[in-house]
Amino acid sequence: MNEQQKKKTMNVAFLIYDQVEALDLNGPLDVFIKADAIAAGSYHCYTIGKTKDAVFMEANTMSVIPTYDLKTAPQPDMIVIPGANPDRVVEYLEDDDFQNTVIQWIKDQYYNGTIVFTVCTGSMHLSKTGILDHHEITTHSMMLDALEQHNTESAVKRGVRFIDQGQLITTAGITAGIDAALYLVGKHHGPELADTIAKIFEYQQQKFKY
């Protein structure tokens, strides 16, 4: 990445929806927030929902209010799609309203050049979009078979923490989202920044190849 790209603030939109998995969302979010705190102007992070109404996180333990809705959000450079309980994700796949609004918005952004970064079962949300076609992809170990069944044009990989396909990044389960976020910070701004964040987290990150 050249110096001009490094200086550009990246708009990172975090999708939230009913029953979203807390660590899928908050792990990567905190990585990018810490990166911006250390390297000011590197990332502008915000949440986005179908509407600005509060939604419940997994098991209804807390409600969160998105910063923006689909119509008012700043143009994202990257969208982070956290997962949810496998049964809930399958329900969303069959929810025409969710598919025709939230998922269609993501699809439109992707084909306009926006990076899509799915965490855990978040990759399953894209199974009807064509975004995953002809890519290597992954998800939580509990959903690898389902991901393969729903995405016959993709190569589903097992035993990996995350896969970087350029405009598409997919991860394995839950904490793998932290690994991928640290990797992306290192890819965008150098491994020293990623290492600093991992030390702040007291997190045992794997060594990445950029």
Task: Summarize the SSE layout with pairings.
Elements: H1 3-7, E1 10-15, H2 22-38, E2 43-49, E3 55-56, E4 63-64, E5 68-69, E6 78-81, H3 86-93, H4 96-110, E7 115-118, E8 136-137, H5 144-150, E9 155-156, E10 162-164, E11 168-171, H6 176-189, H7 191-201
Parallel strand pairs: 1-2, 1-6, 2-5, 6-7, 7-11, 8-9
Antiparallel strand pairs: 3-4, 10-11
Helix pairs in contact: 2-6, 2-7, 6-7
Protein name: DJ-1/PfpI family protein
GO biological process, one term: regulation of DNA-templated transcription
InterPro entries: Class_I_gatase-like, DJ-1/PfpI, INH-QAR
Q: What would the CATH topology be?
A: Rossmann fold
User: Please, how many domains?
Assistant: 1
Shape: globular
Number of DSSP E strands: 11
Intertermini distance: 11 Å
Radius of gyration: 16 Å
Low-confidence residue ranges? 1-5
Order of the strands making up the biggest sheet: 5-2-1-6-7-11-10
Q: What percentage of amino acids are in beta strands?
A: 15-25%
The overall pLDDT, averaged over residues, is 95
Level-1 CATH class name: Alpha Beta
- Secondary-structure-based class equals alpha/beta
Percentage of residues in helical conformation: 25-40%
Number of helices: 7
CATH superfamily: Class I glutamine amidotransferase (GATase) domain
If classified by CATH, what would the architecture be?
Answer: 3-Layer(aba) Sandwich
The largest β sheet comes out as:
7 strands, mixed
Order of SSEs, N→C?
Answer: HEHEEEEEHHEEHEEEHH
